[in-house]
Amino acid sequence: MDVTFRTASRSDLEAIVELLATDVLGATRERFVMPLPTPYVDAFAAIDADPRNLLVVGEVDGVVVATMQMTFIPNITFVGGERALVEGVRVAASVQRHGVGAALLQWGIDEARRRNCRLVELTTSNQRVDAKRFYERLGFVDSHRGMKLDLCP
């Protein structure tokens, strides 16, 4: 499948939110309605303005079919080595199992290398058993136990 990746533009926001909302877990926390709720627009503007954040889309035949966000974090650990945090990885059901997700993650790994990051990290829900296997196939290692505190219960 011929997929191209690029930095997302404001005109991609609706497609990105739709990808997030049509996911099993995203359906419980996202709101894909038109017009998009203002917090999505504000979040996009903040991400777009911050050189340490990168929102990426993947396109097939001009249609957005994948997305991911990367945040580049300076660290004191690893001798001051920067890390790349991957979040919000989604691939449209219509192109899953065609290599789009692997190509998207490889694009992100290459970008992290280009920026001289020391490591790439991501989290995935314990409910996403298939996603965990997918990330392991790409070389990610289940090395830490993640925790979070929901501030909007």
Describe what this molecule looks like in 3D:
With 153 residues, the chain is an alpha+beta fold. It has one domain (4-137): Gcn5-related N-acetyltransferase (GNAT) (Aminopeptidase, 3-Layer(aba) Sandwich), CATH 3.40.630. The protein contains 5 helices and 5 strands, in the order E-H-H-E-E-H-E-H-E-H. It has helices at residues 13-22, 38-49, 77-80, 100-114, 129-137, and strands at residues 4-7, 53-60, 63-73, 83-91, 119-122. Strands 1-2-3-4-5 form a 5-stranded mixed sheet, sandwiched between helices. Helix 4 (100-114) links the parallel strand 4 and strand 5 (119-122). The longest helix has 15 residues, at 100-114.
CATH superfamily: Gcn5-related N-acetyltransferase (GNAT)
Shape: globular
Q: In CATH's first tier, which class applies?
A: Alpha Beta
If you average the pLDDT, what whole number results?
95
What is the straight-line distance between the termini? 40 Å
Strand content: 15-25%
Strands side by side in the biggest sheet: 1-2-3-4-5
CATH architectural label: 3-Layer(aba) Sandwich
Helix proportion range: 25-40%
Number of extended strands: 5
The structural domain count equals 1
Query: Can you tell me the CATH topology?
Result: Aminopeptidase
The secondary-structure element order is EHHEEHEHEH
Rg from alpha-carbon coordinates: 15 Å
Which structural class should the secondary elements be placed in? alpha+beta
Task: Let me know the largest β-sheet.
Answer: 5 strands, mixed
Low-confidence stretches: none
The number of helices is 5
